[in-house]
Amino acid sequence: MKEAAARHKRDMEEEEREKMQVLVSNFTEDQLNRYEMFRRAAFPKASIKRLMQTITGNSVSQNVVIAMAGIAKVFIGEIVEEGLDVMERLGENGPVQPKHIREAVRKIRMRGGIPNSKTRRYSPYPL
Prior knowledge:
- By secondary structure, the protein is mainly α.
- Helices cover 70% and strands 0% of the residues.
- It contains 5 helices and no strands.
- α4 packs across α5.
- It is extended.
- It starts with a helix and ends in a 17-residue tail after the last helix.
- 7% of the residues are buried.
Protein backbone atom coordinates (compact mmCIF):
# COMPACT_ATOMS: atom_id res chain seq x y z
CA MET A 1 0.00 0.00 0.00
CA LYS A 2 2.70 2.47 1.02
CA GLU A 3 4.80 1.60 -2.03
CA ALA A 4 1.89 2.30 -4.38
CA ALA A 5 1.22 5.63 -2.70
CA ALA A 6 4.90 6.58 -2.88
CA ARG A 7 5.08 5.54 -6.54
CA HIS A 8 1.94 7.55 -7.31
CA LYS A 9 3.41 10.58 -5.58
CA ARG A 10 6.67 10.26 -7.54
CA ASP A 11 4.71 9.90 -10.79
CA MET A 12 2.66 13.01 -9.99
CA GLU A 13 5.80 14.99 -9.12
CA GLU A 14 7.47 13.88 -12.36
CA GLU A 15 4.38 14.86 -14.35
CA GLU A 16 4.33 18.30 -12.68
CA ARG A 17 8.04 18.74 -13.43
CA GLU A 18 7.46 17.88 -17.10
CA LYS A 19 4.53 20.30 -17.33
CA MET A 20 6.69 23.04 -15.82
CA GLN A 21 9.47 22.34 -18.32
CA VAL A 22 7.01 22.63 -21.22
CA LEU A 23 5.61 25.85 -19.80
CA VAL A 24 9.03 27.44 -19.25
CA SER A 25 10.24 26.37 -22.69
CA ASN A 26 7.33 28.30 -24.24
CA PHE A 27 7.99 31.54 -22.31
CA THR A 28 8.94 34.66 -24.21
CA GLU A 29 12.27 36.19 -23.23
CA ASP A 30 10.49 38.81 -21.12
CA GLN A 31 8.41 36.16 -19.33
CA LEU A 32 11.51 34.04 -18.73
CA ASN A 33 13.37 37.00 -17.22
CA ARG A 34 10.42 37.76 -14.93
CA TYR A 35 10.16 34.10 -13.91
CA GLU A 36 13.88 33.92 -13.11
CA MET A 37 13.65 37.08 -11.02
CA PHE A 38 10.64 35.66 -9.18
CA ARG A 39 12.48 32.41 -8.45
CA ARG A 40 15.52 34.27 -7.09
CA ALA A 41 13.56 36.79 -5.03
CA ALA A 42 13.05 36.21 -1.30
CA PHE A 43 12.02 38.26 1.69
CA PRO A 44 14.70 38.58 4.38
CA LYS A 45 13.85 35.97 7.00
CA ALA A 46 15.15 38.13 9.87
CA SER A 47 12.78 40.95 8.93
CA ILE A 48 9.83 38.58 8.61
CA LYS A 49 10.64 37.04 12.00
CA ARG A 50 10.97 40.44 13.67
CA LEU A 51 7.66 41.64 12.18
CA MET A 52 5.81 38.48 13.21
CA GLN A 53 7.20 38.60 16.74
CA THR A 54 6.21 42.27 17.03
CA ILE A 55 2.66 41.52 15.89
CA THR A 56 2.11 38.34 17.91
CA GLY A 57 4.17 39.21 20.97
CA ASN A 58 5.56 35.65 20.93
CA SER A 59 8.64 33.96 19.56
CA VAL A 60 8.14 32.42 16.13
CA SER A 61 9.75 29.20 14.89
CA GLN A 62 11.94 29.15 11.79
CA ASN A 63 9.41 26.95 9.95
CA VAL A 64 6.65 29.52 10.51
CA VAL A 65 8.94 32.29 9.25
CA ILE A 66 9.75 30.30 6.10
CA ALA A 67 6.06 29.64 5.49
CA MET A 68 5.13 33.30 5.98
CA ALA A 69 7.93 34.42 3.65
CA GLY A 70 6.55 32.05 1.00
CA ILE A 71 3.00 33.30 1.48
CA ALA A 72 4.19 36.90 1.22
CA LYS A 73 6.08 36.13 -1.98
CA VAL A 74 3.00 34.56 -3.57
CA PHE A 75 0.82 37.47 -2.45
CA ILE A 76 3.19 40.04 -3.94
CA GLY A 77 3.36 37.97 -7.12
CA GLU A 78 -0.44 38.14 -7.38
CA ILE A 79 -0.37 41.91 -6.92
CA VAL A 80 2.30 42.33 -9.60
CA GLU A 81 0.40 40.07 -12.03
CA GLU A 82 -2.78 42.07 -11.45
CA GLY A 83 -0.73 45.26 -11.96
CA LEU A 84 0.46 43.90 -15.31
CA ASP A 85 -3.16 43.15 -16.25
CA VAL A 86 -4.15 46.71 -15.31
CA MET A 87 -1.31 48.04 -17.43
CA GLU A 88 -2.41 45.91 -20.37
CA ARG A 89 -6.05 47.06 -20.07
CA LEU A 90 -4.87 50.65 -20.10
CA GLY A 91 -2.82 49.96 -23.23
CA GLU A 92 0.42 50.95 -21.53
CA ASN A 93 3.78 49.21 -21.71
CA GLY A 94 7.08 49.45 -19.90
CA PRO A 95 7.69 48.80 -16.21
CA VAL A 96 4.82 48.49 -13.74
CA GLN A 97 4.27 51.84 -12.07
CA PRO A 98 2.87 52.65 -8.61
CA LYS A 99 -0.49 53.62 -10.12
CA HIS A 100 -0.78 50.11 -11.58
CA ILE A 101 0.07 48.53 -8.22
CA ARG A 102 -2.44 50.75 -6.39
CA GLU A 103 -5.17 49.78 -8.86
CA ALA A 104 -4.19 46.12 -8.55
CA VAL A 105 -4.46 46.25 -4.76
CA ARG A 106 -7.81 48.02 -5.05
CA LYS A 107 -9.14 45.30 -7.37
CA ILE A 108 -7.86 42.48 -5.16
CA ARG A 109 -9.35 44.20 -2.11
CA MET A 110 -12.73 44.56 -3.86
CA ARG A 111 -12.69 40.82 -4.70
CA GLY A 112 -12.11 40.08 -1.03
CA GLY A 113 -8.57 38.86 -1.64
CA ILE A 114 -7.14 40.88 1.25
CA PRO A 115 -8.49 39.73 4.63
CA ASN A 116 -9.53 42.28 7.27
CA SER A 117 -9.53 45.03 4.68
CA LYS A 118 -11.41 48.19 5.61
CA THR A 119 -12.51 48.74 2.03
CA ARG A 120 -16.10 47.71 1.44
CA ARG A 121 -16.33 44.79 -0.92
CA TYR A 122 -18.76 44.70 -3.77
CA SER A 123 -21.64 42.39 -3.05
CA PRO A 124 -24.21 41.45 -5.68
CA TYR A 125 -26.64 40.91 -2.76
CA PRO A 126 -26.96 44.22 -0.89
CA LEU A 127 -28.25 44.12 2.67
